[in-house]
Amino acid sequence: MGNKRKEECRIVSQEELLDGIYSMWLQTEEIAEEALPGQFLSLYSRDGSRILPRPISICEINREKKQIRLVYRVAGKGTEEFSRYHPGISLSVVGPLGNGFPVKEAEGKTVFLMGGGIGIPPLLETAKQIRGDVKVIAGYRDKQFLTEEFARFGEVFVATEDGSVGTKGNVMDVIREKELKADMIMACGPTPMLKAIKAYAEERGIPCYLSLEERMACGIGACLACVCQSKEVDAHSHVHNKRICKDGPVFLSTEVEL
Ligand SMILES: Cc1cc2nc3c(=O)[nH]c(=O)nc-3n(C[C@H](O)[C@H](O)[C@H](O)COP(=O)(O)OP(=O)(O)OC[C@H]3O[C@@H](n4cnc5c(N)ncnc54)[C@H](O)[C@@H]3O)c2cc1C
Ligand code: FES
């Protein structure tokens, strides 16, 4: 994937959507033109105290304005630093990285876009680009975010753990309760959720793409901090491993073990 670039990207806007969840638009030079839904950017700390970049998925692309939107949760020092910056400040960004969701394959199909928590943002641009019948199934702990924006691109179903909004339970409970059916699935979220979706899809022979947002370090395929178990032997290393940052983060469910 020879198209990654390092750019200084100015923050165009930054807004707190919910407690600790931020939406940030970045002005890019060329990243937005090349970006695909499901790809991610690596963001560097401004003060150099944290050397490794933080990977954040692309939530939305505005090609006309050459801008990229990121929606992220403050998890530790790096994301806390980003959340403090105001419009006008620039961040070093490498991207677009990874492979992304195969939106063209979804044309004319009924597609479930299944997201859990902070795995939901990358599905927004995905929903926007799919020319098919999009059903968004979003699982939250309690409070929802981005659901109104998703409604512009498809039917939205919500699950909350406490039952305060939508179905009480998780994204699998929504499918059962509403008796939904799909030709294809794309999903991003916590591993237990992805495991359940993988089992559901494989039992029914539904093609299913999972975005594995595991821990990463270098983000460019060099350190092997992010490997996951694959079914096939890797052509380069001859082992049952795939690098999530370089070979993924999106994999066909049947290619990977979770
Ligand atoms: C492909 C990909 C896409 C992602 N997209 C999003 C997104 O759209 N929104 C969002 O809120 N989060 C996303 N994450 C998770 C996000 O990268 C981590 O929350 C973030 O790196 C935490 O950094 P920190 O310094 O705040 O926390 P710390 O815990 O202080 O981080 C310490 C180190 O661990 C790494 N790290 C910690 N947690 C994670 C994690 N879950 N995944 C990867 N590396 C981690 C950091 O990069 C850093 O090197 C994504 C992760 C990956 C791999
Ligand atoms: S993060 Fe270094 S190889 Fe994937």
Q: Any overview of this molecule?
A:
This protein has 258 residues and is an alpha/beta fold. The protein has a domain at 5-97: Beta Barrel (Elongation Factor Tu (Ef-tu), domain 3). The chain is 19% helix and 34% strand. The protein is built from 7 helices and 16 strands. It has helices spanning 31-34, 77-84, 122-129, 147-150, 171-178, 191-204, 244-247, and strands at residues 5-18, 21-27, 40-43, 54-57, 60-62, 67-73, 90-97, 110-116, 133-140, 155-160, 167-168, 184-188, 208-211, 227-229, 241-243, 250-252. The strands form 3 sheets. The protein has a 7-stranded antiparallel β-sheet with strand order 4-3-7-1-2-6-5. A 7-stranded mixed β-sheet has the order 11-10-9-8-12-13-16, with helices on both faces. A two-stranded antiparallel sheet has the order 14-15. Helix 4 links the parallel strand 9 and strand 10 (155-160). The two termini are 25 Å apart. The model has no long low-confidence stretch (mean pLDDT 92).
Short description:
The protein has 258 residues and is α/β, with parallel strands linked by helices. The chain has seven helices and 16 strands. Strands 4-3-7-1-2-6-5 form a seven-stranded antiparallel sheet. A seven-stranded mixed sheet has the order 11-10-9-8-12-13-16, with helices on both faces.
